[in-house]
Amino acid sequence: MSDTADWAEQLRANRAEKDEFFAEHPQSPIPPGERDDFDGLDYFEPDPDYRVEATATVHDEPDPVEMETSDGRTVRYERVVTFSFELDGESREIHGYRQRPEDDSIFVPFRDKTTGQQTYDGGRYMELEPDGELADGDEVTVDFNLAYSPFCAFSETFACPYPPEENWLDTTVTAGERFE
């Protein structure tokens, strides 16, 4: 199998695992009374064009960013990295955030032209798990096929941050979870 086929197969396996979690796990965001009718999340087909190599610019002194949440509060993150990449033939940037410096993963919330139409109107998220500390110029794979809807899309018992305007992409990202 080619690397692309392996990648797509792994992506489908991850999606099946997530569907099982949503259907059966006590911590699923699907309300308990609706789980019997849940038959899986809706996804765009895996598309390697939305798996981009990005160049990292690390912010040694991260700027605070206040993000509004679905329950009307604000939550503070720090902009720790900017990723520059090509998508749809244009140079683009998206920012990564952390709430605490000791966090390993980088939170990448975003909106695009599918938001509110084919995807959740509050935006979508990605979590990047770099190997070790990022440095300026590091190449990182940003895979929009891993974009997912936050738990607040499924239940009002969850509050989630909305992507800040600096992470609104002026393009259509038909990758990851759909939500209609």
Please describe the structure with a list of short key phrases separated by commas or semicolons:
single chain, 180 residues, mainly beta, 1 helix, 12% helix, globular, DUF1684 domain-containing protein, DUF1684
Protein described:
The mean pLDDT is 95. Strand 3 (74-87) and strand 4 form a beta hairpin. The protein contains one helix and eight strands; from the N terminus they run αββββββββ. The strands form three sheets. It has a four-stranded antiparallel sheet with strand order 4-3-2-7, with no helix packed on it. A two-stranded antiparallel sheet has the order 1-8. Strands 5-6 form a two-stranded antiparallel ribbon. The protein has one domain (3-178). It is mainly β and 180 residues long.
Please report which band the strand proportion falls in: under 5%, 5-15%, 15-25%, 25-35%, 35-45% or over 45%.
25-35%
Structural class by secondary-structure content: mainly beta
Task: Note poorly predicted spans.
Answer: none
Strand element count? 8
What's the structural domain tally? Answer: 1
Work out the oligomeric state of the chains in this entry: single chain
Rg over CA atoms: 16 Å
Shape: globular
Helix content: 10-25%
Number of helices, where a helix is a run of at least 4 consecutive DSSP H or I residues: 1
Which H/E pattern describes the elements?
Answer: HEEEEEEEE
Brief write-up:
With 180 residues, the chain is mainly β.
Protein topology:
Blueprint: H1 3-24, E1 42-43, E2 51-68, E3 74-87, E4 90-98, E5 106-110, E6 124-128, E7 139-143, E8 177-178
Antiparallel strand pairs: 1-8, 2-3, 2-7, 3-4, 5-6
Region (Disordered): 14-43
Organism: Halosimplex aquaticum
Biased composition (Basic and acidic residues): 14-23
